[in-house]
Design a protein that fits this description.
- The chain is 43% helix and 18% strand.
- The protein is α/β, with parallel strands linked by helices and 262 residues long.
- The protein has an 8-stranded mixed beta sheet, sandwiched between helices.
Amino acid sequence: MNLSTKQFWSRGVNKLYTFLSTKFREKTFNAGENRIKYMFFPKKQRKLNGQNVLAVCFPAFAGKGAKYNYVRTLRHFNINKLFLLDDIGGYDKGNYLIKPGVEENVKALIQEKIDITKPTKLIFFGSSKGGYAALNFSLMFQDVNVCIAAPQYFLSDYLIREKKYENLKIILDNNDTESARIELNNRLKEKIDHAIWLPQKVYIHYSTEEHTYKEHIKEMLADLKAKNINIVEDINNYTNHMDLVYFFPTFLIQSIKEILSK
């Protein structure tokens, strides 16, 4: 079986595992147009090797519809795991979980799980859109370890470039003006610059040969380093942004193992 065939079957198994997990575990936090769908996997208390850690996954774009990411990837880690769904907004579902009302609900849901599990470590992770969201929410909690892949940084630029106008309107709460687009574009940059809490450490995977690096990641890294944040970089050279799915799971597992070992 060659590598491409293995990858095909692996992705198929991942989809089936996530589908079945969703059927039995998906819940909704709050109600109305800003409700959040999620899955929570508590640490198995009967296993001696478990750690009191809470890992939160922020999802990427999934084409038409929305889906949970990396559910099966972390199946062997006996830690508390919270998987979020970003399914509000546009044909290509998602609002980066920052739409007014949604962002507040996500923060409240994470805080609820923190209050319940009382973790000694927090890990926020995600790729692409999920990477942006993971970094965004890490600025709202103390001592978060962040593991991300190829995130966007300047949202208006990206959404316009990709013609995701419906998603842009949802994020801007239908206030789609030039000034609102500029504010959104600089939103995460400004939050990093003025944050009370910064990530404890950022693990980041990216390729210098795909457009996200020059358009987003390069400046984001400069801003994070200017804040003296400890950064671990995993650098590749593929040209297609979507190829991160073949590299990030391994880096994610390695990063979480390192975080847990300390």
